[in-house]
Backbone:
């Protein structure tokens, strides 16, 4: 009898917390190593809203979790092409501009990108590019594009992202083909190029490609711009180059799932993140390209001079969702890698 | 009833009563929730199709299995088995003498040595793997040491090579070879070894014709514990091999995390489980033959 | 054949074998008898080569083999646990030694067959050890050692795991086999009855030393030490004072005052005190006195029926307590009962001085 009472008490306590969740908590599902805890703590102390933070390591992980119906999230942080699918599938709620006054801080060029042309569902968090980083102490040749990197003389001196779509994208760029219109014909053309390239690479690493460069195991990398920016901060010998043939730009966004319970608090947190002084904290820690122009004004000249964070000219394009072609790309690269 | 029990000891052994089931219940529950049900889901998914986002559509076909037998993936299976086989052999060669020595040592020494074998498990596997990276990298501890010793050998270009992968695999799985062999060696009756010597067997022949066959169950268990997980290992090939050569574990991981093709990943997983079962059956047969 | 010269073996501070010398003759059945921990097994292991002596030497056919490993000694051992290889058939177990000596297959086949026939296991050649009974395993172990034609066969308590009936059968069988094949056996046991049944000579071992060496009758009838008297069979050990000596006889007085005439051959002249041993079955009990050097009266305190014998606890009129054994010769025999007064008769040869000072 006593046990039963205790159980009932515990149960009602649980139900109580569940109700509380709706009022002053917000559930954030974001990339790991991307949102400083400082920012979330600042938000909580100002508004009293508690942030429950869960992380993922890939867009696919985010998607599969949402598709499977796991977790009731109020804010998610998909990249451009993933946001595109989510919008198409009705998985995102439209944002209320009236609740996001800080939206005006975001540069216009980041407000109408192909994945969300009217900017109805997403606001950009950080953007970046995939480019070439060169250890200029070891490599004296001028490096301008992919064709300068993937050469026999640099065999076993290269690190590239361990991401099959990226590699195929570079090959498509170098062939002058569309990176978002994947057809069997375009893959057939890319195949021999990728086949040659994978033989030259020493390390495939998406998580921390800077490590191999810092360790001296390789001299050139095709990596995220944020990694390149950190390398430049470490040592000015690491130069960042946007490939002449074309580069991939990614935009990581903040958006609210259609199923979110606490849309109000979600809007508050998104707006908080777009404050210039808050956005600056993020730039200090993760030196990607900050789309928040007001925040950029707060950065040091040195931060703004980092060629990886703020390249001189940016002609890079974003990925679009390619649906089932992702599987074809995966098979192509897997095949070529294992054929070595 | 109690009087009848001693007369029917056989039925007592073969069928657990409700008390036995009550004791087994947590394990049965665990197996059901974490092994059987996921296994069934995996099996069902492997006959389905993926949709655009990466969801699973229940459209029954054998397409995924047809893809598994595509030469691309067969070659990867073969390579994974090769690496795992090499790892297993090296683990036996290195692990056997260690395990045998520990098994025959005095009890006090034995417990200390066993503790040493377990010590690596106190640290996270990833941290230990990163430690190997700092040892093997171009400007790492090994090459610095060789340079400092001025021996005229090195520097070696080890990290991100197949050698590094095998070093990583052997390091990760060696304890799983040592512990079961230790178990067999510890149980080995010393008078059997003495009998072999007494009958004229020198140390080598006593080892090959008595000690090895009698510790075969340990070697078989160790092989199972090393070979099968080594086939599926992907973290080491990524971190120490530079993700250059995909192993079957990498391919499966990619289906779930990059290619958004759960059904194909499931089919690869099912084949992988079948391989495990096959290895088990083969080793079990050999084991029961040698110690029947 | 085998010569052990002043061998000492220590394990840390414990001396397992203490300056032991012993010669074993060819074709002899010698038993090392003693309680557990007395050093008999260590002595055997020194012969086999599993231990090396700290001092002294082990010679085999005149050659010092003290530091030869077991696989270079032409002795073989039958282990207490049999130590059959569980992964080999009976045939392969028996053939193991021959394989190690690289005996040609054809010859080996014949020898294995003979060895198995010798121990009556010809039909069981293809069985695995765990499919056999204890007695059969014992025979396999024997065959496995015999097939190597060792100069000496060492047996370490080989019968201790068998039940009493089987043990008796095997004792006789082993003895028979040893005689038939003319082999030299060194047999270790803690079972005095086994030792008496089988051995040509017995070495009684206590605390790492040989207490007494001799054939079975000598050991039994003429124990030299209190330990030998007590360990073999049963004995009444009684403290006495030597009160008179006359040639090969002496008169001793027990603590109770009872005086006995005993035989003494090598009693030191200065000795005044002695410990005498009387075997229980040697005390003749009767309603009337029998002809003997010593005759005294006693009362039966307790009587225990033991099948072939009756065990009696007696107290003499002087107050000495004695054990006696009486054969139950026929069912109609008038039994002794508690409280009966009887005559005890003892020949002087049946009272042995085991200690004197």
Residues:
């Amino acid at each position: 009898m006593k046990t039963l009472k205790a159980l009932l008490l515990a149960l009602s306590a649980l139900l109580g917390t569940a109700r509380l969740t709706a009022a002053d908590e917000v559930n954030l599902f974001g990339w790991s190593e991307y949102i400083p805890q400082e920012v979330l703590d600042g938000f909580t102390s100002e508004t009293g809203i508690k942030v429950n933070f869960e992380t993922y390591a890939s867009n696919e992980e985010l998607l599969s979790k949402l598709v499977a119906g796991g977790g009731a999230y109020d804010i998610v942080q998909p990249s451009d092409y993933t946001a595109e699918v989510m919008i198409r599938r009705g998985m995102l709620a439209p944002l209320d501009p009236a609740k996001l006054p800080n939206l005006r801080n975001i540069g216009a060029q980041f407000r109408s990108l192909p994945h969300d042309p009217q900017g109805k569902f997403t606001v950009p968090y950080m953007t970046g590019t995939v480019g070439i980083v060169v250890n200029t102490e070891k490599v004296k040749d001028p490096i301008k594009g992919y064709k300068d990197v993937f050469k026999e003389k640099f065999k076993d001196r290269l690190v590239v992202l361990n991401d099959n779509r990226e590699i195929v994208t570079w090959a498509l760029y170098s062939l002058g083909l569309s990176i978002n219109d994947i057809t069997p014909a375009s893959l057939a053309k890319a195949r021999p190029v990728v086949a040659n390239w994978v033989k030259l690479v020493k390390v495939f690493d998406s998580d921390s490609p800077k490590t191999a460069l810092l360790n001296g195991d390789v001299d050139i990398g095709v990596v995220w711009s944020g990694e390149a920016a950190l390398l430049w901060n470490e040592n000015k010998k690491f130069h960042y180059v946007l490939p002449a043939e074309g580069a991939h730009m990614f935009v990581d966004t903040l958006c609210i799932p259609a199923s979110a319970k606490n849309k109000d608090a979600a809007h508050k947190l998104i707006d908080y993140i777009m404050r210039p002084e808050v956005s600056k904290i993020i730039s200090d820690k993760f030196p990607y390209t900050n789309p928040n122009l007001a925040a950029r004004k707060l950065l040091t000249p040195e931060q703004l001079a980092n060629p990886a964070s703020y390249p001189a000219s940016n002609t890079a394009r974003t990925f679009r969702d390619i649906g089932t072609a992702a599987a074809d790309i995966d098979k192509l690269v897997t095949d070529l890698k294992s054929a070595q | 009833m109690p009087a009848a029990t001693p007369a029917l000891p056989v039925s007592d052994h073969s069928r657990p009563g409700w008390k036995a089931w009550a004791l087994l219940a947590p394990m049965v529950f665990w197996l059901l929730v974490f092994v059987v049900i996921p296994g069934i889901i995996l099996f069902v998914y492997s006959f389905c199709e993926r949709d655009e986002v990466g969801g699973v559509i229940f459209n029954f076909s054998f397409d995924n299995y047809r893809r598994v037998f595509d030469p691309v993936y067969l070659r990867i299976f073969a390579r994974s088995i090769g690496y795992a086989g090499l790892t297993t052999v090296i683990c036996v060669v290195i692990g056997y003498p260690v395990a045998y020595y520990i098994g025959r040592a005095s009890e006090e020494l034995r417990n200390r040595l066993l503790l040493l074998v377990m010590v690596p498990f106190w640290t996270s596997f990833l941290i230990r793997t990163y430690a190997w990276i700092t040892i093997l990298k171009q400007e790492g501890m090994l090459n610095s040491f060789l340079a400092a010793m001025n021996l005229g050998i090195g520097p070696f270009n080890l990290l991100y090579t197949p050698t590094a992968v095998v070093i990583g695999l052997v390091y990760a799985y060696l304890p799983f070879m040592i512990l079961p062999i230790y178990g067999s060696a510890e149980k080995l009756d010393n008078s059997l070894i003495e009998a072999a010597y007494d009958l004229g067997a020198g140390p080598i022949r006593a080892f090959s014709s008595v000690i090895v066959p009698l510790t075969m169950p340990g070697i078989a268990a160790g092989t199972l514990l090393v070979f099968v997980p080594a086939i599926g290992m992907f973290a080491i090939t990524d971190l120490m091999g530079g993700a250059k050569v995909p192993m079957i574990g990498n391919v499966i991981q990619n289906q779930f995390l990059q290619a958004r093709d759960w059904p194909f990943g499931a089919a690869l997983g099912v084949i992988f489980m079948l391989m495990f079962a096959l290895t088990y059956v083969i080793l079990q047969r050999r084991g029961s033959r040698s110690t029947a | 054949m085998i010569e052990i010269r002043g061998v000492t073996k220590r394990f840390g501070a414990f001396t397992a074998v203490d300056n032991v010398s012993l010669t074993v003759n060819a074709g002899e059945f010698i038993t090392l008898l003693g309680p557990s921990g007395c050093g008999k097994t260590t002595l055997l292991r020194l012969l086999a080569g599993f231990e090396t002596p700290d001092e002294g030497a082990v010679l085999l056919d005149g050659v010092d083999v003290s530091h030869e490993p077991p696989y270079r000694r032409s002795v073989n051992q039958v282990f207490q646990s049999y130590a059959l290889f569980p992964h080999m058939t009976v045939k392969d177990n028996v053939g193991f030694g021959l394989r190690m000596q690289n005996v040609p297959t054809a010859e080996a086949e014949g020898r294995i067959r003979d060895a198995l026939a010798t121990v009556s296991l010809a039909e069981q050649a293809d069985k695995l050890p765990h499919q056999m009974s204890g007695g059969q395993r014992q025979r396999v172990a024997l065959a496995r050692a015999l097939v190597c034609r060792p100069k000496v066969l060492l047996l370490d308590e080989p019968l201790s795991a068998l039940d009493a009936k089987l043990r008796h059968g095997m004792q006789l069988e082993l003895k028979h086999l040893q005689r038939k094949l003319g082999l030299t056996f060194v047999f270790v046991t803690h079972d005095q009855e086994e030792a008496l049944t089988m051995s040509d000579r017995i070495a009684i071992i206590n605390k790492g030393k040989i207490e007494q060496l001799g054939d079975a009758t000598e050991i039994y009838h003429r124990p030299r030490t209190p330990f030998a008297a007590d360990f073999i069979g049963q004995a009444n050990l009684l403290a006495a004072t030597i009160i008179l000596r006359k040639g090969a006889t002496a008169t001793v007085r027990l603590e109770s005052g009872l005086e006995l005439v005993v035989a003494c051959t090598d009693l030191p002249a200065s000795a005044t005190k002695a410990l005498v041993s009387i075997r229980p079955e040697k005390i003749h009990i009767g309603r009337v006195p029998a002809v003997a050097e010593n005759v005294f009266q006693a009362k039966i305190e307790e009587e225990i029926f033991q099948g072939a014998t009756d065990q009696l606890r007696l107290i003499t009129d002087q107050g000495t307590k004695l054990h006696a054994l009486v054969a139950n010769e026929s069912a109609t025999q008038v039994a002794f009962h508690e409280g009966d007064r009887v005559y005890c008769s003892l020949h002087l040869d049946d009272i042995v001085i085991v200690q004197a000072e």
Remarks:
- The domain at 11-127+251-304 of chain A is CATH 3.40.190.10 (D-Maltodextrin-Binding Protein; domain 2).
- Confidence is low (pLDDT under 50) at residues 1-22 of chain A.
- Residues 11 and 121 of chain A are 37 Å apart (CA to CA).
